[in-house]
């Protein structure tokens, strides 16, 4: 039995009386490590340590905070090969995707190192004589960050970096499925000289650690990425405890393909958006809404390219699609493949694949002849599956694109400036792409959606300050 990776509480590593095994979805006989499973008491201790450290960290010079984030970025870059291996091994995304995500995390820390120095306020004239008004932003305090398994280093990075940059103390709870990348990130932040209590890692079950975070009065706000049902529960808990809340959840993102689209561009955007990273992105293109004139040529070429995708072990060179992340997730995907057939779709692909290891491999799937009201076209699957919905014209495409409970990202493939312009204007999603996949976003601009996809203010870019700071309005009488 090897060592158990521990939680980081108040600047010290701490074990737990329970632990979880981290196994690779490419081969479940590959035991990556054993990770401490924290309890409510660990959250309470982390909250005490963070609350004690908060005033000093909030008052630290922005240069001190910027320097810490710069050191973290440099260390992520120095260890990028090792981190990417861990990410690919524990989450199952193929190595080039894992390396891309690791680099994205380093960029995020570098970006927020700069943001620490750029936090601005306002000076306004009062309506009263000899009175000055200043509007400033202060750290929120202690924040709880709850992250999913599908981007185990980028999502933690885009929550932790702004939290620290703007002077908050952090309690970070990663998904139980992917504690390895989170643990390396914690080692890096700790090893980069982060003061005790400013950053805490509490691994463990969401139902235990996450709920304790929601209830703890010392935690001023929670930033969450994950599923809609957990988000709903969290929102109720945060409302009851008067906590600030920011949530990014699911999507059923439409990609519209117009008759006037460049076929190669459309196929490439849809192939990437629907199937890369095994479709396990909240921004995945899971509804392909295709105009009738291009439909048959588009389906023929997309099917050909989909069937040629190399699916296999995430660490095997040349693979394009890794395994599904877990047995649970695979079971869900396979049940949606069966449902799509029951609902009357012609299903291409979607079966379980044997790749010679004990892994969760599934071939990518297209649900042809889909209708937007089908459950398989309305519910988030979070796997390598996309519904193809045929439409007559632009208006019908826009109507169906918006006819969903979600509103995270949307896309259109077209060579018409008018279609692009109208789609950007009328899409009900928070992020709109033209001739680009619906997934794969920049790290320095706001990220988030509308309707059931998001709650609260935007993540990433300078917009992140909205969540991680609290506004103060100060009046001075100088008479
Ligand atoms: N929008 C997105 O980016 C993502 C969306 N999803 C969607 O969610 C589905 C399920 O994925 P899953 O990872 O299980 O998502 P969850 O919402 O279950 O998990 C996300 C995070 O929340 C934690 N959590 C679970 N229960 C609670 C709770 N009661 N209070 C506080 N935190 C909690 C989880 O902990 P733990 O897992 O450790 O128990 C994890 O860290 C996917 O099929 C997909 O549809 C999933 C991932 C990302
Ligand atoms: O598409 C992206 O780049 C980000 C997607 C994401 O954040 C998610 O799936 O959780």
From TrEMBL:
CDD domains: ALDH_KGSADH-YcbD (cd07097). PROSITE patterns: ALDEHYDE_DEHYDR_CYS (PS00070), ALDEHYDE_DEHYDR_GLU (PS00687). Coiled coil: none annotated. Keywords: Oxidoreductase. Pfam families: Aldedh. The active site is at residue 248. PANTHER family: SUCCINATE-SEMIALDEHYDE DEHYDROGENASE, MITOCHONDRIAL. Belongs to the aldehyde dehydrogenase family. This is Aldehyde dehydrogenase family protein. It comes from Roseinatronobacter alkalisoli.
């Amino acid at each position: 039995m090897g060592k158990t990776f521990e939680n980081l509480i108040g600047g010290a590593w701490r074990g737990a009386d329970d632990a979880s095994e981290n196994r690779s979805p490419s081969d479940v006989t590959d035991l990556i490590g054993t990770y401490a499973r924290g309890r409510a008491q660990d959250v309470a201790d982390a909250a005490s340590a963070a609350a004690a450290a908060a005033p000093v960290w909030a008052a630290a010079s922005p240069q001190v905070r910027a320097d810490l984030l710069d050191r973290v970025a440099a260390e992520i870059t120095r260890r990028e090969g090792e981190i990417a291996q861990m990410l690919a091994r524990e989450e199952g995304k193929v190595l080039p995707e894992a390396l891309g995500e690791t680099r994205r995390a380093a960029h995020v820390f570098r970006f927020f190192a700069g943001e620490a120095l750029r936090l601005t306020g306002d000076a306004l004239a009062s309506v009263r004589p000899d009175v000055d008004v200043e509007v400033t932003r202060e750290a929120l305090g202690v924040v709880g960050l709850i992250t999913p398994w599908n981007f185990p280093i980028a999502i933690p990075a885009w929550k932790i970096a702004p939290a620290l940059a703007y002077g908050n103390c952090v309690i970070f709870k990663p998904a139980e499925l992917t504690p390895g990348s989170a643990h390396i990130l914690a080692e890096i932040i700790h090893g980069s000289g982060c003061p005790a209590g400013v950053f805490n890692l509490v691994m463990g079950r969401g139902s235990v650690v996450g709920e304790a975070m929601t209830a703890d009065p010392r935690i001023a706000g929670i930033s969450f990425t994950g599923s809609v049902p957990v988000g709903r529960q969290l929102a109720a808990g945060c409302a009851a405890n008067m906590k600030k809340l920011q949530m990014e959840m699911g999507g059923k993102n439409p990609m519209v393909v117009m008759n006037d689209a460049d076929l190669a561009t459309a196929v490439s955007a849809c192939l990437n958006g629907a199937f890369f990273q095994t479709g396990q992105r909240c921004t995945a293109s899971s509804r392909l809404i295709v105009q009738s004139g291009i439909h048959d040529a588009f389906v023929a070429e997309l099917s050909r390219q989909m069937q040629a995708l190399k699916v296999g072990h995430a660490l095997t060179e040349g693979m394009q699609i890794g395994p599904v992340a877990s047995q649970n997730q695979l079971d869900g995907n396979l049940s949606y493949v069966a449902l799509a057939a029951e609902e009357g779709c012609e299903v291409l692909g979607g079966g379980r694949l044997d790749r010679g290891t004990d892994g969760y491999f599934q071939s990518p799937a297209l649900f042809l002849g889909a209708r937007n009201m089908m459950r398989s076209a309305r519910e988030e699957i979070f796997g390598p599956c996309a519904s193809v919905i045929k439409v007559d014209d632009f208006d019908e495409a826009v109507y169906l694109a918006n006819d969903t409970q979600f509103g995270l990202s949307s896309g259109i493939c077209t060579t018409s400036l008018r279609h692009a312009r109208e789609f950007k204007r009328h899409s009900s999603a928070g992020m709109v792409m033209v001739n680009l996949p619906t997934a794969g976003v920049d790290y320095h601009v706001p990220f988030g959606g509308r309707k059931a996809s998001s709650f609260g203010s935007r993540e990433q870019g300078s917009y992140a300050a909205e969540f991680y700071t609290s506004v103060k309005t100060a009046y001075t009488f100088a008479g």
